[in-house]
Amino acid sequence: xxxxxxxxxxxxxxxxxxxxxxxxxxxxxxxxxxxxxxxxxxxxxxxxxxxxxxxxxxxxxxxxxxxxxxxxxxxxxxxxxxxxxxxxxxxxxxxxx
Length: 97
Hints:
It is a single chain. The chain is mainly α. It has four helices and no strands. The chain has helices at 16-24, 33-40, 44-56, 81-85. Helix 1 packs across helix 3 (44-56). It is elongated, with a radius of gyration of 24 Å. The termini are far apart.
């Protein structure tokens, strides 16, 4: 049996800047990973791998959706003082808008 390989090799080299741009484009204007992968002719798994790699290298910035809110534990009023004695180590945060 004879096998011929036609066409060019599919393996491409991606610069870190290109990987970062592709990973960061997920979610912009509602774009899904599937859409971004199709647009750049890569697999979804490749985008997940790049995201993991970029996080490990510290190149992936903090998500713009992340929001950090300061909590003053001294200002918290406890409605039931008897619950304070049986503390389980769990913290409940109530966000009041």
